[in-house]
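Sequence and fold
=================
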Amino acid sequence: MRTDSPQTIYRKDYIPPSYLVETVELGFDLDPARTIVANRITLRHNPESKGSKNERDIVLHGEDIELVAIRLNGAELNPGQYILGANTLTIKKAPPNVVLEIESTCAPEKNTTLSGLYVSNGSFYTQCEAEGFRRITFFPDRPDVMAKFTVMLRADKEKYPVLLSNGNLVEQGDLDDGRHYAKWEDPFRKPSYLFALVAARLVCQEETFKLADGREALLQVWVEEGNLDKTDYAMQSLKNSIRWDEERWNLELDLDRFMIVAVGDFNMGAMENKGLNIFNTKFVLANPATATDVDYAGIEAVVGHEYFHNWTGNRVTCRDWFQLSLKEGLTVFRDQEFSADMIGTDSGRAVTRIDQVRTLRQAQFPEDAGPMAHPVRPDSFVEINNFYTVTVYEKGAEVVRMYQTLLGRDGFRKGMDLYFARHDEQAVTCDDFRAAMADANNRDLAQFERWYSQAGTPVVTASGEYDAATQRYVLTLAQRCPPTPGQPEKLPFHIPVAVGLLSGSGSDLPLNPDGDTTVVLELTEARQVFTFDGIPAAPIPSLLRDFSAPVVLEYPYTDEELLHLFRHDSDPVNRWEAGQRLAMARLLKLTAAVQAGEALDLDYTFVAAQRALLLDDTLDAAFREQALILPSESVIADQMEIVDPQAIHQARQFMRRTIAVILRTELLNAIAANQTPGEYSPDAVSAGKRGLKNLALGYLLAAPDAFTLDLARRQFDEATNMTDRAAALVALIHSGADVEEPLQAFYDQFKGEALVVDKWFAMQASAPTTDVARVRELMQHPAFTLRTPNRARSLLFSFANANPSQFHAKDGSGYEFWAEHVAKLDALNPQVASRFARSMDRWRRYAPELQANMRRGLEQVAGATKLSNDVMEVVSKALAN
C-alpha cells in the first residue's frame, strides 16, 4: 500500500523565479527509442527574487529524462557542482548571468502518458501544458518564465517528411545521412508550456489569408493521409475565428503562419501552442458521412477557442497555475461569444446559452457540491492536471460573462483593451484582469473577487409582494452559499440578477423611466430589497434572465406561473427554464412514487404544454428541441437528498413513454415537417431541424411499436449524413429492440474511421440496456484499446457517466469495474485515469447499500502500491470529504 503523501502546493507560497530565461535554443535528433535534446538557455538573475530563500539557485525541472552533460558559461560541470533530484536539477549559488548548455535524452515511444514528447502512430507529437516540457529537457518549467525560442529539428526524411515547431520557419534542408532539418523561430516570448513540435508523415490543406492590416498569413491544417477531405470545416472555422477576433476585439494574428495539426492520441481537446496548435482529431476531422451536427459545432468552438488563446493565454499568460482560469475561463467566454455570433440570430444565441446552462447544471454544479469543489482560482493542488475542470473553464467563463453583464458590452471592451495594453507579453493574475475591468470603468469590483476565491454554487432566494394601492412591486433577494471542503462559511458574492416582470397577458412591463423591460440588479449583501413603481397589476417575475449569474434560484413559482412563463416569457432562457422546472417537479414526484411502489401518473397539463410548444411554428426548431429535452438523470439526482439511480431512470423513462403515447401524432408530424433534403449543411437552421426531428424519433421509440421501429430503421438505412444515421441507431438501441444487425452494419461501414468507431462504442455504453458484462464484452472487441484516450473515453467514461442506472447496479459490479480500470488506466496515462476516477466523486450522496460498495472501490484504488498523484488526489479527497 502506498504510504507516502504527495506534496500539496499552495497559492500563498508563490515565490518569483530566482532566474529568468532570455533565450532558448533547442536541437532535437529525433528517434523513437532515444531522442537527443541539446538545450542552450541564457538566464539572468531575477531582481524580484531578492530576499527569497535560495535566490541565487537555478532550479530546473526534469522528469523521465536522462542527463548526459551540462555546461555553465562554457565549463562542463561534474556531479559535485549540481544536485540532481528525482524531478529537479539545481545549481547552487550561480553567477548573475548564465549560459547553460544541457544535453539529455528521452524515450518518446515509451511515453504512454502523452505528456511531453511522445509517439503516436509512428510520428512525434508534444503536449507540454501543464508540466510536460520537463519530460523533454531540463528547464524552469513554470508559466512565469517566458523566453524566445529557436528550435532545430533533425529526423529521418523518409519517415518524418514534415518537421514543425512554433513560430516562423526560417531554414530547412537535407543532411548527408538521409535525414533533413528544419529551423523555427518564435519572435514572441512564451512560457515552456506553449512549446510544440511535430515530426510526421502528414498532408495539409493550406490557404493564404489576408489580415485586416493587409498582411498575408499562411494557414495550414495538417492531418494524416486519407483525412484531407475532412479538413474544410476546420479551415473555415479558423478563418472565421481570425476575422471575428479582428472585428470584435481588434486583435490580429501576429505570425506569418498559423498551423493546426490533428493527432488521434491526445489527452485534451486541443492545445494552443504558439502558432502550432495540436488538436485531438475529434475537433478537426469532419465530413457529412462521419460527423454529426454536434461534431461540427464542437470543431467551430474548439478551433475558435485555441486560436483566441493567441492573445488570452499566449501573449498574456498566467503567472502560476492557480491562475489557470485567467486564460481558460476568459477564452471559453470568447469562444462562446464567437459561436453565438456565427449563428447571428437572437434565437440562435439563446440556444447556445441554454446549452451552456445545461452544461453548468449537469457538470459544474455537481463539482461545486462534491469533494473536489474548488474556487475558480484554487488555493492549493496536488496535481495541476486535476484542475482542468468545468469550474475553471465553464464557471470561469460565467465569471467573465458577469463582468460584461455588470459593465455592459462597451465597458467590458474597454476593460479588455486596458488589460492587453498593460500586460502584453507578461505572466499575470486574475486580480490583474479584475483591476483592468475596474480601472477602465471606474468601478469598485473588490467584492467581485469572491467569485475567484470562494468555492460552491451560491443560492439566491427571491420573494415578491405587490401593493395594488401604490402600484408598487417589492422584490426581496437573499443569498447564501453552502459549505465546501476547507470553506465552511462564505461571504456575500457580487451577483448580477437580470429581472423582468410579466403582465397577466404575457407582455413585458416597463421597469424604469427609460422603458427598459429587463434591468440588472446588483445583489451584494446577504439580503436586499428592490422596488418597482408604476406596475399596474400583480406581475409574474422573470428572474435571472439569460442566466445572468451561475447560481441556484429559489422562488416559489406555482404551476400556473410557470406555465405562463413557459408560454410567454420574452427571455428564451427563462422560457426554457420554466419548462425545466415544470418537468423537474413531476420527475421528482414520479421518482418518489417508484420508490414507494405506487402507480405512476403524469398530469395532462404538463403534456398539453409540451404539445403547444411542439406545435408552435413561430419558434425555431432548435429552441423547441431544447425546450422539449427533459432534465437529465444526473440533474434529477442533484435535486435528491439520497440518490436512487434506478428509481430516477424508471421515472424519467415513464415520462418519456407517456409523452410518446399521448403526443404520437404531433411527434410524427414534427419528423415529417423537419426533414432536410438535399446537400447536407451544418448551419444552425438545418441542424435545428434535424435536432427536433431526431428528438421526436427518440421520444417515439421510448414507446416503440412496429411502425416507429420501422421508421427508425428506414432512417438508419437511408440517412445521407451521420447526424441522422447515428440518431436513428441510438433510438433503436435505447428502445430495447434487437439491434445486432444495424450495429454490425454500422461498424462494418465505418471501421476505418476511428472517430466513428468511438461513436459506436459510446452509443452502446450509454444505453440503459448495457450492463457491466456487456461493457467487458465490448472491451474484448479488436477495435478497443485503453491506450488511446478517445477510445477509453468512448466506452469506459460513457458507461460510468452517461449510464447511471447500470453503472450504479445494486450488486456493486459497476464499482468493481471502475476500480479495476482506474488502476489499469493509471499505469498507462494518469491524466485519463484521474478523470475516470472522478466518476465516484459524490459517493456519499447515494443510498447506504450503494455507498458501501462505492467506498470499497475507492479504498481498493487508494490502497494500490503504485498510484499517480493524479489519481491519489481524487480518491483521497473523495474518501475524506
Observations:
- The chain has a mean pLDDT of 97.
- The radius of gyration is 28 Å.
- The first helix runs from residue 232 to 249.
- The chain is about 40% helix and 20% strand.
